[in-house]
Input
Amino acid sequence: MAQQNTSEAIPNNNDVLIIGGGPTGLTMSALFSRAGIRSLVVEKRKTLPADPQAHVIRRRSMEIFEQIGVADAVRAAEPDLALDYITWCSTLGGEEAGRLDLHIDENGDPLPKIWTNIPQNLLQPILFDRVQSDANCDVRLGTECVGIEDLDDGVTAKISLAGGDEHTVCARYAIVADGAGSPTRERLGIGMEGRGPGAKFYMIHFKADVTPWIKSRSGPLFWILNPAALGTFIVHDPKKSIVFMTPALADEEGEDQLRPRLMAALNIPIDPEIVSIRPWVAHGQIAERYRLGNAFLVGDAAHRFPPTGGLGLNTGIQEAHNLAWKLALVLKGRGADRLLDTYEPECKPAAQANAQDSMDNQEKLGRVFEAIGRVQDVDALDERLRSIDGAEKRALKDAIECQRSHFSQRT
Ligand SMILES: Cc1cc2nc3c(=O)[nH]c(=O)nc-3n(C[C@H](O)[C@H](O)[C@H](O)COP(=O)(O)OP(=O)(O)OC[C@H]3O[C@@H](n4cnc5c(N)ncnc54)[C@H](O)[C@@H]3O)c2cc1C
Output
């Protein structure tokens, strides 16, 4: 697990302070370096995250990873999982409602591999190693931004160091990349627009080998329709790393409640080792503004949408790219401040469209349930799926086919 030495004094005066060392902040630091700009990244975590979260890395993000020299490492770290199908089934071991073939598009034409499938907990160490070995990138783990003030000619930020000491840091510009709950965005008084908070889910990350049960329909996602254990398996590595994302049924649920639900969704003879259980609340929100004086919001700090579409991390990477070269030009005296005002009108509409797509994708999933109709329990569901025929079978096939836009985005 990545660790780093924080004993060196934190620099007082910086061109750029990046608050948050998630995928967006780390990519931004590497992009600045490529443009010849030094940045200081403060990240409150002491170690990199162990849970997978995002896994869909789209082509445009890979082009950006190419520019910062990590694309080969990202491809090499992809787990051994064929992206053949997206499957809907009663349980992993139960009846299948249908599947989408990822090798063809909506017209039945061949579709090239459209995303790189790497879990976020494998991606982040690659980005971290990239910036840690770069003299232009100063990344401090265990270092939290606890205050920020925007001044005429820069920002000052209060930084809390691992031992508890506080330090004031000045920077010409601040990049606010501290994630969906962004405390820095709140401190700057920037509100969010849109929908949320919505439904609460639990993400159960577990270790198990499910290869025997998925090898004939290999893929990253299995939608589970069992009325007693609804949810989605996100298969990061079929041999050892899977997340079950299931709607919360009560305010506080722990392993006692969630393990039986996981077993009911699996319905196969395995004994999963639960690594972590984390709550997650759906939002479809965009920040009111992306810039306040010398501070800029990027990534989840600027928007939060459901994972249905795999767009959150990708949107942040693309914002980092849009902003880094502009700030680099301005810092070098080769661009005027008004260039920086193009960041919001260029990036916010993309985030709004991605938020809408993600929410539409989430809502459309309901059509599969409508096509199946109400069933009492998993036995009735299995019986229904075994016997469904004629027009009803075609309606179910159409309901699954209409989910295709969720997975076929090419950029
Ligand atoms: C189940 C799930 C599946 C997903 N799948 C996909 C997918 O397939 N594709 C996709 O594109 N997206 C996906 N996402 C979304 C993706 O995980 C996020 O969009 C992404 O992590 C955002 O990156 P970020 O760097 O902007 O923010 P974060 O990853 O949240 O990083 C922010 C960082 O800031 C740090 N921080 C917070 N406050 C402070 C502070 N005060 N000082 C210093 N540091 C601070 C945090 O510790 C954190 O490390 C998924 C999300 C979930 C929950």
Observations:
- The pocket of flavin-adenine dinucleotide is lined by residues 19-25, 42-45, 53-56, 120, 144-145, 177-180, 183-184, 203, 245, 280, 299-300, 307, 310-314, 316 (CB under 6 Å).
- The radius of gyration is 22 Å.
